[in-house]
Amino acid sequence: MRWLGRRPAGLGAWLALAFIVLSMALTAALTWFIGHAAIGQLRSTIGVNLAELATQTASRLDRSMYERHREVRLMAARLGDVTDPARVRRELDTLQTSYPLYSWIGLTDDRGTVLTATGGLLEGVDVSGRPWFINAQRGQAMGDVHEAVLLARLLGNEGEAPPRFVDIAFTMSNADGSPRGVLAAHLNWAWARDVERAIFQPLDATRAITPLIVSRDNRVLLGPADLLGTALDLPSLRQAAMASGKATGHTEESWPDGHRYLVGYASDRGLDDYPGMGWRVLVRQRLDEAYSPASALQRQLLVAGLLAALVFSVLGWWVARWISRPLRALTTSAGQLQQGQPVRVPVSNHYEEVAQLGQALNALVYRLQANEVQLLELNANLERRVNDRTQELRKAFEQVKSNEQRIETLVELAQDPFVTMDFFGRITDWNSAAEQLLGWKSEDVIGRPLEEIIIPARYRGQMQAALAHYLQTREAPFVGQRLERLIIDNQGREIPVEMRIGLIDNPPVQLFSAFLHDIRERREIERLKKEFVSTVSHELRTPLTAMYGSLNLMATGMAGELPADARELVQLANDSCERLIRLINELLDIEKMDAGNMQYDMRRQPIEPLVMRAVRDTMAYASHYGVELRFLAGADAMVDVDGDRIVQVVVNLLSNATKYSPRGGMVDVSIKVRSGHVRVSVLDQGPGVPEAFRARIFERFAQADGSDRRQKGGTGLGLAICRSIMVAHGGRIDFTSEPGRTEFFFELPLA
């Protein structure tokens, strides 16, 4: 900071400026906070006063209406047994005389004809259609403010604006309880002006406070002439309605005349058996007039704050000059020290900090030379350490570069194509194996969208959706999974490949990678294998069926008695033929399942008969192995299944359990229903499934080891077929196993 272009200002000037600014800011802040609190409190008090006026008015209305309600109710009770018309007229005239604002009081019969009335008005007239008569019959004594043109004409007010009335009516009964008629009174609404004058006339006329009485349907009943009968929609009315007479308040709001008002509001509460009319009382005052005391207070606080800021500014300037006086002497000594002159810094006792500063500067002078020598030594050490660190960084960089080259070499020499893609779908790596398989050179595809290069057109939408899903959720279930997909080369030919996708998401490195393995040869081998199995199965089954029939006739003695040795050989051949036929049938089932041609006859039926049928079919087989089958009766259930296929599954599980159970063992079959499914379990006492074999037990041709296969028999296809059947039924099959206890089970959804 410079003063008029000359040298920078001194500490004294800065301190003076700081004191002035701080004093003015502090004074302004205190003035604002104090003023804000005081003005806020004053405004709240003004609003509360208006709300209190509204409450007083509502209370006066309630009290006055309660008195009229009670007078008419007592009069109706007193005249209940009086049948003399003259006496009734006297009673009515007396009530009107006691309170002249009763414009009309009359007694009707139960059909609505006026029998007796003050002044004889409306006598003999049928008033059964009047709202007050109808409401009285319904038990509603009070009627809201309304105009009465006919009554005004009868009362002699025809040339004036029609007066408004409040209806009060009670039913009357004879001594025997039968309905006699209705006693009604029309209360002139002018009484509300009396309430207004009683409350608001003592107030200062210059305050321009206006009261309004608003009906339940928001029509102005009492207020400025231009608003009478007008329906208002104001926040204060809604708040007063929500308060339901139990609370009052005030608010600021805009009115239809374009002005903003401070409005106090309250609702009538009723009193004792007088229920209230649902009236809302609003007391309004123009916002600028209502808050004029607060504005005057705000101006006074502003003037006081400015005066206080001026006084504190002068005082701050004087204090700043006093504080900076010894510092100027120290500044002179420092300048001499900078020029290399021998100097002794004066030590002032003006105040403690300056004295300490002088002593510190003297000590600093003595230490400068010693520190200069140390600084030179530290500088030399720092340069040496920087050189060493630079060498280490160079070596680390060379090692990183070497690793990158090694990785690039491994990827380039890989036998399978290697491709990487960034998060925008652009190709970033393309090795020579990819060039050989797909026909594209790396320089032709790097930076281009992967989907346009190797993804068939019909699958590009799926790839875009998967990439967008990952970018949005960071979820990639396909990562790390072995997948088989179709890709295309530069000629548009589709190539089946097997891949495992990797993911790197460590900014700035963000990419997907995959090695692509060409599986065309493998798929061709699988196709040939299926054709071979199908051909062999169909070519063998016909002659085997004939052989099995012949051997079965010989084994059962229907072709004549055979010697014991020959009978044993025939039985052995019969069993082997039966096993071959079963193998061929299972191969054919597998073929149908693979081709999707397996037919299922799905019917709704109970599960228990199917399980019992499978147990019966396996009894003879189990007896051959010395194993007992036991069906544990449980809950039955209805399922939608192909019964023959379910029996096939249970028979297969029972056969396996029988083969691997010890002689004399027991196999338990049970049915349980749980959470929308039925479970069928087969429990045996065999040695259990080996741990290493459990992961592939449901695969085709899977058996624990060769010795078991030769000893126990079987094709290794049974459990694979069972799993396919369960999948087709929407169920599942699984097992638990430990030495001495193995349980195979399947679950089906309930019908």
Layout of strands and helices, then pairs:
Blueprint (H helix, E strand, L loop, with lengths): L10 H68 L6 H14 L3 E8 L4 E4 L13 H7 L4 E6 L1 H6 L9 E10 L5 E10 L1 H11 L9 E5 L5 E3 L12 H9 L5 E6 L5 E8 L12 E7 H4 L1 H47 L13 H62 L4 E5 L4 E4 L1 H7 L3 H4 L4 H5 L5 H14 L8 E7 L5 E13 L2 E10 L1 H36 L8 H32 L7 E4 L1 H17 L3 E5 L5 E4 L1 H17 L6 E9 L2 E8 L21 H7 L5 H11 L3 E7 L2 E9 L2
Parallel strand pairs: 17-19
Antiparallel strand pairs: 1-2, 1-5, 3-4, 4-5, 6-7, 6-10, 8-9, 9-10, 11-12, 11-15, 13-14, 14-15, 16-18, 19-20, 20-22, 21-22
Helix pairs in contact: 1-5, 1-8, 14-15, 15-19, 16-17, 17-19
Your description of this structure?
The strands form 5 sheets. Strands 2-1-5-4-3 form a 5-stranded antiparallel beta sheet, with helices on both faces. About 1% of the residues have low confidence. With 751 residues, it is of the alpha+beta class. α1 packs antiparallel against α8. The two termini are 91 Å apart. It folds into 4 domains: 245 residues, Beta-Lactamase; 70 residues; 103 residues, PAS domain (Beta-Lactamase, 2-Layer Sandwich), CATH 3.30.450; 153 residues, Histidine kinase-like ATPase, C-terminal domain (Heat Shock Protein 90, 2-Layer Sandwich), CATH 3.30.565. The longest helix has 68 residues.
Helical content (DSSP H or I, runs of 4+):
40-55%
Contiguous low-pLDDT stretches (5 residues minimum) are: 706-710
Radius of gyration: 54 Å
Taken together, the total number of domains comes to 4
Just name the CATH architecture of the largest domain: 2-Layer Sandwich
Largest sheet: 5 strands, antiparallel
CATH topology of the largest domain: Beta-Lactamase
β-strand percent reads 15-25%
